[in-house]
């Protein structure tokens, strides 16, 4: 609205009684005619509001929809309910005999305490045990880790800020309608279409907001929180942090499993390792059974790998390379196998 003439400038153009052709340029001619339009200032504001409201409404509706989707994901996730039930059972067991040993539900602040409860084993928490239990029992699945990936983006949205933005748009819209009520009949007729369009945009916007607030109330009841003090963005941030902790535990478990496999390989008897180093191998079953043979025939294994020719006792040239020697061993034993079958 800064491009419109100030009241002082508008008064100058209204009092101008010279020829329009004598004005300096098309800009002054435009202002000359503009100030003669009844309620031009209100008309321009209504036009700008009509142009901006679809964009602003679409942005807010998208944000409200994202938050509503996340609320629905938390409420409807069966795997998350089962995991919370497991945490509740474990917590009641650990608190047996105490005042909080018969809890009926878990609140949001209880999620972080699961990872903070450590065991005697270094770097192992209660969450490690719960994840192992979840993987060992089908009803305690971890599917919610995928279902809750949407929470990372939604946790950045502030519902209070979105509502404040909405209230600002609605207040501006109501102000335009109030000013229009005292405008001329022609002005009301010109602005009727724009006002009706913005009314529809804001009606959809308020409907989206109301659906979200209903879901937020359900989430607050789900975690036994006070609705008036409940912050949905804090809820999503807590759940997202909890899922990150579970993912970290899964990585630790995978690392330990790999270390265990490596340790078992290192525990292989020394004689077996020396046997492999001397070039003793086992044929696959497709080659007629697990038959053992020496690839190098007493020769250095490095020489066989490079395909060097050492010759043989009967004057024949030994095949070069491991593959050639494999084929020779198979061909030598093939006649014996055929005689046995006949």
Largest sheet: 2 strands, antiparallel
Based on helices, strands and strand pairing, what is the structural class? mainly alpha
Mean pLDDT: 77
Low-confidence stretches: 279-315
Helix content: 55-70%
Count of alpha and pi helical runs: 14
Q: Order of strands across the biggest sheet?
A: 1-2
Please report the distance between the alpha carbons of the first and last residues.
104 Å
Which tags fit this structure?
342 residues; mainly alpha; two-stranded antiparallel sheet; 14 helices; 2 strands
Provide structural commentary:
The protein is mainly α and 342 residues long. The chain is 67% helix and 2% strand. It contains 14 helices and 2 strands. Helix 5 runs parallel beside helix 11 and helix 9 runs antiparallel to helix 10. About 11% of the residues have low confidence.
Q: How is the topology of this model organized?
A:
Layout: H1 7-15, H2 25-34, H3 40-76, H4 78-94, H5 109-116, H6 126-136, H7 144-147, H8 151-154, H9 159-181, H10 185-222, H11 232-266, H12 270-277, E1 280-282, E2 292-294, H13 301-305, H14 321-341
In short:
This protein is an all-alpha fold. It has helices spanning 7-15, 25-34, 40-76, 78-94, 109-116, 126-136, 144-147, 151-154, 159-181, 185-222, 232-266, 270-277, 301-305, 321-341; strands at residues 280-282, 292-294. The longest helix is centred in the middle third of the chain and has 38 residues, at 185-222.
